[in-house]
Amino acid sequence: MEATPPKINIGRQSAQIQASRTRIALREQSLSEEAKSVHFFAYMPALLLAVFKDILDFTGIGSLPAIGTAVTIVVSFFIYMCLHAFAPHADSHAGMRRGLIMLSGGGIEAIFLGLNFLPIETLAVLAIYFLDKKPFQNIVNRPLKV
């Protein structure tokens, strides 16, 4: 007996390819909506805490030796937790990157005395926002693979 080649139904394969393209297009559309959802309001709790801490630093409460250090540690921890809870993650290293930015912002403020009047924590949260927004924009703008 001879082996006969399998019969291929061209219409069925064409329908499967079209369905696959439709699924990809819907997924890309949902990623686009997700990228739009990486908006500023997700970072608002962390930003409000950072502004509060910078106001405390500016008024002099954050400049007190023991109290200022305690306020910086506690508020930086809460800022990090707000970012972790409310802001979306673009990649697996987002949490580590956020933590390093928050630690470096607090460390700069702690090491160099007299910088308490600068809004370092607020700038750190804004830097995290812009760094987190970029990978989502790259997801939306990549070409479709079929």
In short:
With 146 residues, the chain is mostly helical. The chain is built from five helices and no strands. The two termini are 38 Å apart.
Structural class: mainly alpha
* Proportion in β-strands: under 5%
End-to-end distance: 38 Å
Integer average pLDDT? 75
So how many helices?
A: 5
Unreliable stretches: none
Shape: elongated
Number of strands: 0
Rg: 24 Å
The SSE string, one letter per element, is HHHHH
Helix content: over 70%
Largest sheet: none
Features:
mainly alpha; 0% strand; 146 residues; elongated
Question: How is this structure best described in words?
Answer:
The structure is a single chain. The chain is an all-alpha fold and 146 residues long. The protein is 73% helix and 0% strand. Helix 2 packs antiparallel against helix 5 (120-141) and helix 3 runs antiparallel to helix 4. The chain is elongated and about 90 Å long. The two termini are 38 Å apart.
